[in-house]
Amino acid sequence: MRSISSNKVKLSRVLTEVAREAALRFALPWDLVRLRNEARPGIKEALLYYEPSLGVSFDQFAYKYAQRAATRSGAKIRAQRDHDGDRHSPPPDQHVIEALETFSPQEWQVLIGDCGSADLVALLTHLRANKGQLLLAWDHTPYYGVFEAASKRAMVLRFSRAAEKKRKFIAFLDAFYAAHWRASARKRNIQLLSGPPGSRPLMETVSDAAIAETLNRDGRSKNLYKTNRQVGGMFRRMKNTPLEEFEGDPSEYWTVMSAPWVYVRYRNRLRRERV
């Protein structure tokens, strides 16, 4: 009995590992259950050819057969997903939870690059909902790295579709660039890196006026004061509503932060929903 039980545990580990490998190879984080199930015929196939005289345990012998079956399944699923685009249904909650527990933050950085919009919404929803648990498991830097990568990917997909439809937008990335430039300047300041001779003082480069000057596309000084106020408003909105607390599609975050009237609509919607 103990031998049978031990073999079952070892074979379960084989199925788990080959499913994980296929999910990473074909960017299918939500399909671990399906990949495990479709790797099982490989175990049965291995039974037909295994002999104790081979000098290896059955689980070691069966690994390549299960791996082959999981790879075939992963290739078919990936081809179907590529054909369907974002028309496939969002993953069940349990599948997302299992994927978050299975893959490391470094692996998520790779997987996110192949995620569609529906996948990203599911991922970001669970990252927010399970923030405390994931911070304990991953620590702060990996968690926010995954969250940022997923948010950026969602934003890229959203604006790519908009560009294909030739929609006109407000300057939806002003808040993103403003935050990026200020963070970069502050990092240089913390590291005590001096600029080239004649460059502007570091603290001056993080001011609203300096960022306004960069954002001001036509460069005319008469527009600088207005843009300066806009930059200050963007930073106030981002402070009041950080990305990780934003209630909505993360790909819309920078648009909402860039435009005051859009932010007002966002806040009004939240108030209506909470009544």
Structure description:
There is one protein chain. The radius of gyration is 25 Å and the shape is elongated. The protein folds into three domains: 88 residues, no CATH class; 79 residues; 101 residues. By secondary structure, the chain is an all-alpha fold. The N terminus is likely disordered. The longest helix has 27 residues. Helix 1 runs parallel beside helix 3.
From the alpha carbons, calculate the radius of gyration and give it in angstroms: 25 Å
Main sheet, how many strands, which sense, barrel? none
N- to C-terminal distance: 60 Å
What is the averaged pLDDT score? 78
List SSEs in N-to-C order.
HHHHHHHHHHHHHH
Q: List low-pLDDT spans.
A: 1-5, 165-170, 218-223
- Structural class by sheet pairing and helices: mainly alpha
> How many individual β-strands?
0
Count helical runs: 14
Helix content: over 70%
What amount of the residues lies in strands?
under 5%
Number of structural units classed as domains: 3
